[in-house]
Structure formats: structure tokens, C-alpha cells
Amino acid sequence: MHYFLISLPYFLLYILLGLGVSVWICPAVLRKHGVFIAPWIGYGIVVLWGWYAYKMDLTGTDGYAWYLAAPLLLLTFLTVWFKRRELKEMIRWRDRDFLAPLIIGVVCFFIVSLPYIMQTSQATAMSYANNDIADTDSIASFLKEFNRTSTEGFLGQRPVFKDLADSIIFGGPYSIAFAATVLKLETFPLQNVSLHVFYIFGVFILYSFLREVFVYRPLPAAAVTLLFGTSPVLYYTQYQTFQAQIIGMGLSIVLYLLFFFGMREKNPWSIRLSYIPLLVLMNWGIAYTYPHMLIIVCVLQAGVLLLAAVTGQERAGVVRGVVLLGLGTGIMLALYPPRAQELASMFWQRGQVEAGWFISWLFPDFLLGFTFKHPDLVPGGGWKRVLISAGLLWLLASGMLHTFGKDRRLFWLAICLLGMILGGYALLAFAGRTDKGWGGYKSYKFVTFFLPILLAVFYLRFREFDWRAQGYRHRLLAAIGVCIIIINTYSAFRVVRMMQKTHKTVSGEMADLKKIRQEPRVSSINILGADWWAILWETDILMNKRLYFETSTYCGRSASALEGEWDLIRLMPGNKELAALPESDSVIRVNTGYLLRKHPQARSRPEDLKAED
To answer: 205: how many CB neighbours lie within 10 A of its CB?
Structure first.
């Protein structure tokens, strides 16, 4: 229950932050999707304003978040009062195109959240196997409580979190820091909440994307949206806590939706006054959340423009597309010019740096949700895999041929997007091959980022499906669709089950270390042991103290001489001697899981020995 009590205000906060702006600047043709675009507008504005506040070296969001939130929330309130007619165009309770994605989103949020609902009574940070969530939370804590040039405690020893926020990830952690301040919460319980809420925002906007860009009928659009919302590959991605990828993926869907609408827009004033600010916000969001992917997103847009020019589509539409692409990215870069060089540098570095773990080449079966009993994305072999992949490829070919006869322009768009995405995936999978075969971490991250588009293309055969139609072909197509949804959902539940059974979590004892932050007797601490998960979170929670590490992990936590005045000791079950140590001048009991004991060198000082006697 506590998980939902935190999720609901977080969900509403980002919708309300962007709803007022959405009503005022969304083009009329996009207004019916305004509620689903609103949270992404809210996110973009928060990250835009937050970046300048951060670079101006203001104190953390605890000192100014309400000054950013209040105008946006006030604008939404005034919009509800003065723009009721436009708001009614957005909130259409009797319209299936409004209700369908809402219902699907709620259902999918419940499913993906099951491990958090069933495992803990309190909202907390959890991960399947990846420790990166601790670093993400450390950056969020830094952005919430400290200014950029703070030299307090660990921040004075190593500027690692400032460097990460400056150059690599800012948007995701900042959005959590901002919300934590506004909602008066800690950052760590919001880590998974943020992941799942923004994933559901992506579910909402994908439905709009399918309806408008790929011209899906309502029922098949809802079915493909459900497949996205229960994708086992994306559940695995979320449980590995890849926050930047999930948020960047949603922003890119909004960006494509705006781009395609803008190409069709006949009114030049609408391009200048409506689309450009929205495109700038989406580009800004990607550039400061998942920066290296912005270049690839722009390449896809450029590819679509090239296709339109080559196939002889309306010249004015191509020109409008060039204007949208150029101004959308150009103005975004002009708002902070150094970002242009940083984007190029990060894109190059991502190509050179080896990171992550090996994931095998995802054949169509795994990519589209047929993971069955392999929730870790370990592909099964044999004839079943070949048969299922062949069937899915047949479905793709059938959809392409059907679309070629019905809508030639859509056919070429699908070919263009599919070719660029799978071409990039094949290139990365070949470059990342090992003795285990083709694949790798980079190729997996790349293809899952573009999975919404791949789902739209692979299931084109269902695009015009009408449940009222008669004939054996329609009945066969319906049966295939139902089977795909059942298998996909079953595979998603396998990943959910995996997360329930095997996960890392921030315990209540670990969270209690917050007490030490305000302890005046403690200025420096030695972090002992070799448990990476514990070390990363202890660094996060005790960031305002000088910290020394017995074991190296990563992101600035390197083993060194233990020069801290106090040792942080984790009380393991069965260690009765340490557990029985009484509170004294040289022992601080935190809880049943932790205590602080003065380092031997500190205890050897005469004043400490006298205090112990």
C-alpha cells in the first residue's frame, strides 16, 4: 500500500506540471493527446530549469524546488479555470482512445510493480542484479541536498557525482530529487517508482503514436500497447534499473509523434509557435537524460526525411521536416552550446568504452516476448526457437505486403525505420561478438530502446483488424493475436517472478544510517567489507561525511588507507560479540544492523583510552 501511496502523487505531479503548458501550446490537431504528452512536457521543463539552477550553483532542490513547481502548478490551476473547453478536448472520458491507454497503463503498472508490492511493506529501492541504482540515487541525493561545488564530506574528496551529473546523467536523478523535495520524501524510495511511472507514461504515448503515425485501428493499437506494457525484455530492463533508457525511450516516442505531425501541418505559424517549443523540450530531455542516443534519434528522423525526398512525397512536407529537425535540435543546443561538443564526445566514448555484460543476440522470438522460461534473456535453442522466429518473420512479411497494397507511404516508412534499427543492431551485435556468439550489452541496449517502433512495424498485419469482420482469415488472425498476448504476458510474469525471488534491496537498517548524517561526533568513516551493494548505498547515505574504503567498487569509491575516525560495522547474524557492545564514547549503536566503532588508531589516543576506562 505504501508503494502506491508514493506512486500516485509522483504520477500526478508530472502530469500536473505539464498539463497547463500542454493546453496552451499543443497544436489543435495534437490536443486530444495532450494529457499523454503532458508528463513529458513537465519532465522537460523541470530538467531545463533544473540544469540552469544547478549550473548557477544554487543549493540543492531542497532550497528551490517549490519555486520551480509553483508556477507550473498555478498555470495548470488557471488552465482548469479559464480553458475548460480545450481541457475537455484532452480529457475525454467517453472516448476509447483516451480510456484504452489509461486502463492498459494501470494494469501494466500493477503487473510490473508486483515484486515491490509483495516483498516489502515500505517503498524502497530494489534491483535484480545491477548495482547502478545506487549510483543513480547518489546523484539524486547530491542534487537534492548539495550545491554543485559543495566540498562537504565525501564530495570534497572526489567530485564523482558532480562529474556524472555534468557529463553523463542528469535528467533522471534530477527529476527524482525535484519530486522528492516537492513530495517531502527521500530519494531512494522513488527510484523504482520513477522507473515504472515513466514506463507507463510511455505506454500512454505509444498508443497515440500507433494511432496517428502507423494508423492502427483502436483494438490492434490497444493490443500492441499491451504487448509493450508487458514486454518481458523491457521488464528485465526495468528490473536492472536502467532509468535513463526508460525515460529516454518515452521522450523519443513523443519526439517522433511531434515530428510526423509537424511534417503534415499545413499552417506555417503552427510550426513556429507550437511544434518548435515542444520539440526543443523533448530534445533537451533526451540530451540531458540519455545523451548519446540523441544523435541516433536525429539520424532516424533524417532517414525518414531522406526517404520522403527519394520517394517523391510532398515537397513542402519534407521542407517542414527539415525545419523541425534543424530548429528543434539547433535551439536546444543554443540554450547551452557546450552540450554540442559533449554529445559528440559522449557518443564517441560510448562506442569505445566496454561496459556491462554479454547478452546474446536477441532473435525475433525473444525480442517480441517469447522468452518462456528464460527470464534472464538466456536464449533457448532447438527447433522451437527456429519455428517461432520463422512464424514471426512470416507475420512481419505478411504485414509489409498487406501494407504495400493499402498504404504505400506507410510501407516505405516501416521499411526505412526497420532497416535503420535492425541495421544498427546487427552492426553492434557483430562488433560485440564473443565465443558465445553475436550480441553484447550495447546491442541489447540499442534494440530495446527502439522496441516501441519495432513492435509497431512487426505487427502491421493486425493494423486494420476489426473484430466484427467475418471469414476464416480474420478468425485465424484473431487467434494468432490472442496467442501472442498470452505468451508475452506469461513471459512477463516469469520475469516478475524472477525479481520476486532474487533481488537486492535497501533494508530498513541501511536506510537508518541517515541518523549518522546529523551526528556531530562523526566526521569521517571507514567503509569496511567487500559487499558492493552495501558499500554503494552506504556511500550514498553518508555522503556528507569523509569516507574511506577497504574495498574498491566504482565511481570514485577506491580502496585507500583507512584514515577515518570511525569504522562502520555491519552486524552479521551470529556475531554476538559485536552485537553486545554497549553504547559508549567509542561505540555508536545505529540499529540492529549497524554500529560505529572508533578506528583502532583513533582509540589509541590518550583521551579516548581514558574515556573507555
So the answer is: 24
